[in-house]
Amino acid sequence: MLLLHNLNQDHPAVAQFDHGLIDTLRTGTQFDVRISAEYLNVTSFEDVPSYASDTARYLAMKYASWRPDAIFVDRAVTSLYSQYLRETFRGVPCFIAQDRGGEGVVAGADFKTISWTTATSDIEKNLELILRLRPGTKSVLVVLGASEEERRLAKEITKAAARYADRIACVPTSGLSHAALMEQVAAVPAEQAILYIRFALDSDGVSHVPAQVVRDIVGRTAAPVFVVAQHLIGEGVVGGYAASFELFGRRTALWILDALDGREPSGEALAASINAYVFDQRALRRFGIREFVLPAGSTLLFQDNSLWGQYKLYIISGVVLLIAETFLVLGLVANRMRRRRAEAALVALNATLEARVLERTRELHEANEHLHDAKEELEALNRNLDQLSRTDSLTGLANRRHAEETLEEALLRFCRYGAGQGFAVAMVDIDLFKRVNDEYGHEAGDDLLRGIARVMTHGVRECDLVSRWGGEEFLLLLPGTDPAGAGRLLERIRETVGATLFACGAGAKSVTVSATLTIGASGVAPGDTLEDVIRRADAALYRGKEQGRNRVVVG
Fold this sequence. Notes:
The protein has 555 residues and is an alpha/beta fold. It is built from 16 helices and 19 strands.
């Protein structure tokens, strides 16, 4: 399978699409799937006449001895493919991402078109959404760049704006430089709104990363910002009727599998929409938008997970109960004082009996204090024992028992709440650790284990878990991290360890030792057991060993 993308793999939309497509192709299929991807940045070189032909000549040479069974072509690459590569790959099924209206469809039996880009209906739903959430909005600044694709989208915006002309004014920004766009964004009043469509190329011919443009806009405007792509949510925008590129990638994979199997697309591959209403709860709160006005079926991201947000009712109930108990205690104290006054009256009647009662009371009080002290000491010992049972005595990290319990809890949350509670697991092994023990002694080996444990602990977040799995192996649990993010974090840890010299041993046996790590990582998937996740991470670790050690392999 050959993928011809416009933007590079660091672009969130492309990364999500590739993840969905590749995951679906490699899951439950009878084909031996091999993926080759090219990221051509066509829109960045529209003004360079020779770029398309030179790129096509390079691709023709590269794939002369490896002919793919199917090709996916991004809409922005369609012109290059049709003009220069069509003959090179004649007979190979080519799946081209087009707009829903079918504009620009390439003729020929080898070409299949799949819906990808923003359509008029998507823009209309976002305009309707803005009016629903902020009824007083009179004007919407529609952010759009100057590339060929963005000029095509301007036509869709014009169609949508015409239908809402009597309710809201749409002001497109096409034809602006980045600096001019920022000035116009800063001038938008707080009671109006901004709808970000796309800004990959400005009027000066400068390419921009869409996610960074969104961050720039949010930082310069007091108005709420809405988007049409889910991967941009989390940059300070409110949300919107937005497309999921991972879902589109999965749908494209099903379409391709049907075609390769000689069937017409069916089932999920023909589903009507990849869009959904998705919002950032933090931005909703910032702009005073109540959740009950959101469309039915809306998804809320970045919900309040603070102690107060999760347990507000319980905290209030606890405070009320504490106040009630305080009054009860005060009543008991008052009652006790009355009782003591009665006891004082009895002293006058029977001094001997009072002395005996006071002595017995003192003895009981001392016994209670001894029992209380013994209970607290026992509880402290139990806490220490529990902590010791979950801690590796050499490194001070969590031990295998603690790691397994924490993994079980994370997997349970994932099974219950879905992708929002996803996580990654990494198995870390110190390369050639036995050589350190053999050459410098076990005391040096212990010091090396402690030093590497400190580096890994400093290299992760507070919510991550670093544990000693056994011997020179460690296990890392990375909540809320996908495999790609885990790979980047683990690569930083591997580089840090490789660049560090560890002081090992003591006295005359003191030496400076360097070390490298081989790391295997895996993300959790629906239907996984704890053994599945650990097995994949372990398999990735062994692949790393087979490939020469000192590397990170994401399974």
